[in-house]
Amino acid sequence: MKTRNSLATIGVVVLFALVMGACAAPAAAPAAAPAAITIGYGAPELSGGQGPIMNGMLTGAKNKGWKIVTNNANADASTQANQIDDFIASGVKAIVTVPVDSQAICASVKKATDAGVLFFTIDRAPIGCEIAMTVQSDNYLAGKQAAEAMVKLLTEKNGEAKGTVLELQGDLGQNVAQLRGGGFNDVMKEYPNITVISKPTEWKAEKFSQATLDVVAAEPVEGIYMHSDCVGTVVVNAALEQLGKKSKRGEAGHIFLTGVDGCPDALQSIRDGYSDHASSQPIPDFGVVLADYMETVFNGGQIKEGTVKKEGAPWSPATIVKSDTGFMLNLATTPANSSNADNAALWGNQVKP
Questions:
Q1: Do 167 and 300 reside in the same domain of the chain?
Q2: Residue 274 located in a structural domain
Q3: pLDDT tens track for 188-217
């Protein structure tokens, strides 16, 4: 009996072990790596500040461990639309672009939205449609800074705020040019003795040059405001030289040059004495900052309006506002002039001309 009882006990133990083994969770398999996030980045072109802008987005994606695929539209809106179609078809999680045309981009925004792909822009906002977010310079502030510098220069020269200024506009179909012009002209409206002659250029260097040649030859221009010193600095100086009107600060006949961007050429022209002011954009930070907000959205969080501060950042404080095109983060621009043109924090001093 003792042996039979012992065998019975062993049988119960074995049966219990088998039952428990069947009920227990199987050995944990190695955790699957999270699905890789792929971002499509559409550059409008790569001249001027657009190369550093794209590099900033590449840095932002790398910091997050995301894969990023890039395309260059070479300033053609139709090409950009086709490239965005390719991004959507490839299954990217989000698209980031600098619109070639702020209105035309809305057709691509709709396609992306219908496909469940998040849409963000850098440097320029869309016009006429809503996206997740735009990160850009405070272009209105940049124009305002350039105007204030121009008013100060004219006042110091003439004893009062008076004179004739040529405004070389960008592409007025883009919110960037509209804002840079708005900030500049809202200041100028306060000074009725300053005459502003505005010429559209569509960001084309040849149009910067021709407008300078035409207007400066015919009018007593004392200052030139460039919506983009990346596009304008070299060709405007060349046009002034052709007209025999290129001179340095402090020399007779010097024509004041102010602008927005803070490109290497502009900073060098300030150092050389030919340019006077540049509203420097925080270009390298665009993509890095945007990546943080993209991550928030990917994780189900919400972007909120308000002030954004980051210690040591040249663009701080910045503001997030909600507009009819979605959330917009406007990063402050830094006035650059002869007193700080060598500052290593200015993006134009971080890249080769």
A1: no
A2: yes
A3: 999 999 999 999 999 999 999 999 999 999
Total domains in the fold of the chain? 2
Domain span including residue 220: 139-280
Same domain, 86 and 158: no
Angstrom distance (rounded) from CA 208 to CA 297: 40
| Nearest Cα residue to 261 out of 313, 225, 236, 211 | 225
* Residue 266 CA, distance from chain mean position: 18
> Rounded to an integer, what distance in angstroms lies between the CA atom of residue 3 and that of residue 237?
109
Q: Dump pLDDT digits (tens) for 273-287.
A: 999 999 999 999 999
Considering the domain architecture, whether residues 86 and 212 belong to the same structural domain is answered as: no
Reading the block at residue 171, the tokens are 């592409």
Measured at the CA of 104, the angle between CA 231 and CA 38, to 5 degrees, comes to 85
Cα 237 to the chain's mean position, in Å?
26
Which residues are CB-contacts of 94 (< 8 A; sequence separation ≥ 6)? 37, 39, 40, 117, 118, 119, 120, 132, 294, 298
For residue range 63-114, list pLDDT tens digits in order: 999 999 999 999 999 999 999 999 999 999 999 999 999 999 999 999 999 9
